[in-house]
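sorry for the late reply, my laptop died twice this morning and i had to redo everyting from scratch. anyway the thing you sent over, i finally got around to it. pasting the sequence first so we're on the same page, its 468 residues, then the predicted structure underneath. double check i copied it right bc i was rushing
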Amino acid sequence: MAMARRMATFICLFVVGLSFAAAGDVTLDDDDSSPNIPGCNNKLQLVKVKNWVDNVEGESFAGLTARFGLPLPSDAAKAFKLPAVLSNPLNCCSTASKLSGSIALSMRGDCAFTTKAEVAQAAGAAALVVINDEEDLYKMVCSENDTALNISIPVLMIPKSRGDALNKSIADKQRVELLLYAPNRPDVDFAVIFLWMMAVGTIIAAALWSLLTSEQTDERYNELSPKESSNLEAVKDDSEKEVLDITAKGAIVFVIVASTFLVLLYFFMSSWFVWLLVVLFCIGGIEGICLMITVLQMARLPNIKVASVLLCCAFVYDIFWVFVSPLIFHESVMIAVARGDNSGGESIPMLLRIPRLFDPWGGYDMIGFGDILFPGLLICFAFRYDKENKTGVVKGYFLWLIIGYGFGLFLTYLGLYLMNGHGQPALLYLVPCTLGLTVILGLARGELKHLWDYSREPSSDMNRPVEA
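ok and here's the structure:
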């Protein structure tokens, strides 16, 4: 069991590079660079598309409105259920056949989006749905040649797979009906609050776990005879062999290995590998001990020097794989791996995910294990430092780092809100709020040198700076 737990711990440390925060499965950002002209200044909105084929309701899916056209209602009760008809020609770039009282379906390409909308409107369509040539939703904006528009029908885009399915149903002479509306998304979902509590609570539990278990062990140790005491001491020594002390060199190697492992997952990840990881994590956490608490007990930072190397490398690592990797791989490697884009949607079990219960679009708020483990290693070190040097709660570091970590998570989700749900490198906010706070407090208290080269020695109290 110890071997399985250790294996799961090392796998967890290697894949812990999936340290980012994200909200929801549908993200949207506005395009302020497009021309802002009369009739083309609408806010981009996500659209809920309900569909029926021969009166049998199918699964709803998402679309995206254009910068022009009539806004859609936010309530499904105020929307109209209308038949869907393929435009003729299918690109809707020239005079189309009569489309009165129906929703026109058009393929993307061959002419401007505004031209398609004008042709569909002239043919009497109640709305225009443009089928994209890929799964992502493209922003339909106006060109610089458009001076003024008078488009009075809703215009939206849907993904290729959904459009192909509708096309096939119509080609098979089935009756297809659509209902379009744009429900409002709440500014804050309770899932964020629960996720914040889970992340902070995990670190607090990991730090206090060793205190609770050591107190129970010490009480039993004092009640035993000398012979039994020596046996217990041997057991304690054996248990301490499972502790992995992180070095500065090991921290750098770890980040390099984690990056390599992340790229391998991006190219070769499959559903069977994800399920293998799930099984290993279940085995590793089978003793009632949360996996992350186990990792924080087994892997320890000896001082702030090693913590600075590890967290600064992780800081750069997180930003690179979220923000810089799209320039190389054309998408964020970390987000793609975490969502399971290349494994049939099976995501690696390295995320805390809470469903967005009050969001009409569904999805999840999530945070990577790395966003808990990396700062958690530092916070657990602060707890041990305070305990071994007998500092008070206020004069110690543990309480302030917990507050700093909680505030860093708040900034992370504020960034998610301002970026409309796009994945954020959480360590961008968490490292300054934990490691940065430690350095500031150490400087202010004159203890930074002691923290920097700290080691658990019996005479460690003599190494502390003498106060005048």
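Residues 46-181 form a domain with the Glucose Oxidase; domain 1 fold (CATH 3.50.30.30).
thats about all i looked at so far, will dig more tmrw
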